[in-house]
Design brief:
CATH superfamily: MetI-like
Oligomer: single chain
CATH class: Mainly Alpha
Number of strands: 0
Helix content: over 70%
CATH topology: MetI-like fold
Number of domains: 1
Shape: elongated
Length: 280
């Protein structure tokens, strides 16, 4: 894994993506220290203060303020904590489900038909539409959103891991282990699982980016994280009414979403190309 990591980090694109992701993660972890103001602190006397480089701007609010006088930079920093946490935890949850079902489906032929038919049924519905429907019925919130994104995102893992397992289980060392009477559970955990970790990590990067976009979309529609919690999606939703007069309310959270998703996808592309098995 160390050699593979060094190989990945040789690419300039991966360095740029990794640096941007690191900046966002540090903002999320150190948000109480880095944010100049409380994300929820209101000051109606300083409503719609533009960014500091514009006429009427102030260095006290580098990126300006919103319709309630809240500091945009502080809300972006605090919002990174929620948005990134949702994306990461949702990717882990869906990965746990998808990897487990993919291993079972690929190794045990009796379970393959059942699991893949369930996956086919779920694939018939777009993930954002399925997530929207579930959240509309059961309600939003941090925990519920992670559960919904995890339940709707496992198929991506399961189908890829299944195909990997189907290829690996015909290898000589797997056949030798079966001949010696090694149980299926031990073969999956000790011989197959280590060989599909790299592919699972690659999938998780794209799944995390998808989860961040889905969370932002649901929050924008008022069905995700509660409005009183600063997230990039909530900031987009509150700023949509003032796009003409106060463009910075929507621009900066949208820019953050674009940069984090682009960085994760670029890193995922490099991981996919670097960790994929080479054929001659």
């Amino acid at each position: 894994m160390v050699k593979q990591f060094k190989k990945v980090m040789r690419s300039p694109i991966s360095w740029i993506a990794f640096t941007l992701i690191t900046v966002f993660v540090l903002c999320a972890v150190l948000s109480p220290i880095l944010a100049p103001y409380d994300a929820g602190a209101q000051n109606l006397r300083e409503r719609f203060v533009p960014p500091f480089w514009m006429e009427g701007g102030s260095l006290n609010h580098i990126l300006g303020t919103d319709d309630l006088g809240r500091d945009i930079l502080s809300r972006l920093i605090y919002g990174s904590r929620t948005s990134i946490a949702v994306g990461f935890l949702a990717a882990c949850f869906s990965g746990g489900i998808g990897i487990t079902l993919g291993l079972l489906s690929g190794y045990f032929s009796k379970l393959d038909g059942i699991i893949m038919r369930i996956a086919d049924i779920q694939l018939a519905f777009p993930q954002i539409l399925l997530s929207l429907s579930i959240v509309a019925i059961f309600g939003g919130g941090f925990t519920k959103l992670i559960l919904v994104l995890g339940i709707t995102g496992w198929v991506s893992y399961a189908r890829v891991i299944r195909s990997e397992v189907l290829s690996i289980k015909t290898s000589d060392y797997i056949l030798a282990a079966q001949t010696e009477g090694v149980g299926g559970a031990r073969i999956l955990l000790r011989h197959i699982l280590p060989n599909i970790i790299a592919r699972a990590v690659t999938i998780s990067t794209f799944q995390m980016a998808t989860a961040i976009i889905t969370e932002s979309s649901l929050s924008f529609l008022g069905l995700g994280i509660p409005p009183n919690v600063p997230t990039w999606g909530n900031m987009l939703q509150s700023g949509q009414l003032f796009v003409d007069s106060a463009w910075w309310l929507s621009f900066f959270p949208g820019l953050c979403i674009m940069l984090i998703v682009l960085s994760i996808n670029l890193l995922g592309d490099v991981l996919r190309d670097s960790l994929a098995p080479k054929t001659s």
